């Protein structure tokens, strides 16, 4: 006897056969739809769980206690948490300027502070002190251009021969490294740091720096350092070209006579016999070239803070700059929560 679930298909009920086949197809379709629906729910739950954990990690790292615990783990277990921090603080990539290899990205490691200004405004002195105060790396990009200028003077390359200068740049290796807490510049493997303050280099570096091919070739070195984060970079176009996404941008200025006085004192303290008239001429020429060049001219970024250092002691200016940095970082949750710690860039204080 046939069960109640058995259906006999004969020639007389062919329509029933087609009906049954439709039922089977519908049943399979329902099973597949159900499976997909379940998978969708599983993925939704997993996504919201991951999002919740990410937010929780962000909250933990934003508290002093959380940062303390993670720093102890790093120190005691030897575990680097850079990848965790990178995950928690990661932002949408933003690149305003693109060079051959490295983009000027908003870093996710620690704050990038750009300090720009003309010669004699106090950039190096202030930048070094600020880097030390915040426990960040310090890099003077001007030394990179000075190193190339030194090589040109040694080889007696005519600055007016632009193609020769660019060709020399492309075959020159300039490295920025750390040695006992000091920033050292290697030119083709030779440490030339002590030679870079020579007035002869200062008299020619602006002519070299205004060549677009030179700036393009050296830009990658600077951006590679800046993109690692946790660094104070000083120069003339850090906030506008090198690191336009820097967390804090400072533009230092000073009265012309004050700048001349500082440069004369600096040169004489380093053992160079210079006349004040010579320094006046060099700074006037440097200002004209830096501000007038078509490629990366010296100018404050639209979102930079200008600080006049005229008549101020270094400590006074450092405190003023530090106050601005704290204020700016407090508005940026990514940089503001990581104000301390050595940077991973080559030179740190």
Quickly list its features.
349 residues; alpha/beta; Rossmann fold; 2 domains; three-stranded antiparallel β-sheet; 13 helices; 54% helix; 11% strand; elongated; disordered N terminus
Topology, element by element:
Blueprint: H1 14-61, H2 64-77, H3 82-89, E1 112-116, H4 123-134, E2 137-140, H5 142-155, H6 162-170, E3 174-179, E4 182-187, E5 190-191, H7 199-209, H8 212-226, E6 231-235, H9 238-242, E7 248-253, H10 256-269, H11 276-292, E8 305-308, H12 314-330, H13 333-336
Parallel strand pairs: 1-6, 1-7, 2-6, 7-8
Antiparallel strand pairs: 3-4, 4-5
Describe, in plain words, how this protein is organized in 3D.
- Helix content is 54%, strand content 11%.
- It is of the alpha/beta class.
- The protein has two domains: 11-61; 94-336, P-loop containing nucleotide triphosphate hydrolases (Rossmann fold).
- The longest helix is centred in the first third of the chain and has 48 residues, at 14-61.
- The termini are far apart.
């Amino acid at each position: 006897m046939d069960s109640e679930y058995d259906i006999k298909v004969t020639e007389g009920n062919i329509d029933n056969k087609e009906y049954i086949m439709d039922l089977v197809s519908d049943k399979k379709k329902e099973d597949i739809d159900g499976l997909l629906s379940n998978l969708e729910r599983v993925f939704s739950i997993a996504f919201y769980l991951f999002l919740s954990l990410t937010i929780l990690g962000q909250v933990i790292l934003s508290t002093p206690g959380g940062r303390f615990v993670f720093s102890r783990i790093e120190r005691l277990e030897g575990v680097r948490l850079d990848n965790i921090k990178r995950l928690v603080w990661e932002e949408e990539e933003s690149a305003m300027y693109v060079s051959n290899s490295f983009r000027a990205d908003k870093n996710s490691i620690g704050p990038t502070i750009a300090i720009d200004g003309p010669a004699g405004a106090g950039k190096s002195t202030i930048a070094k002190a600020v880097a030390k105060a915040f426990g960040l790396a310090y890099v003077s990009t001007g030394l990179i251009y000075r190193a190339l200028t030194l090589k040109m003077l040694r080889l007696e390359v005519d600055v007016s021969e632009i193609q020769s200068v660019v060709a020399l740049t492309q075959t020159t290796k300039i490295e920025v490294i750390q040695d006992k807490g000091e920033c050292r510049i290697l030119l083709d493997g030779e440490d030339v740091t002590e030679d870079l303050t020579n007035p002869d280099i200062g008299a020619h570096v602006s002519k070299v720096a205004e060549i677009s091919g030179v700036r393009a070739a050296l830009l990658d070195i600077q951006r590679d350092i800046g993109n690692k984060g946790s660094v104070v970079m000083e120069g003339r176009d850090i906030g506008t070209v090198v690191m336009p996404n820097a967390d804090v941008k400072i533009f230092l200025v000073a009265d012309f006579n004050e700048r001349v006085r500082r440069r004369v004192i600096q040169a004489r303290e380093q053992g160079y016999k210079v006349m004040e008239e010579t320094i006046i001429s060099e700074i006037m020429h440097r200002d004209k070239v830096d501000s007038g060049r078509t490629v990366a001219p010296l100018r404050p970024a639209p979102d930079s803070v200008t600080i006049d250092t005229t008549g101020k002691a270094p400590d006074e200016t450092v405190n003023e700059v530090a106050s601005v940095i704290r204020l700016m970082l407090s508005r940026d949750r990514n940089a503001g929560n990581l104000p301390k710690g050595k940077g991973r860039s080559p030179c740190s204080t």
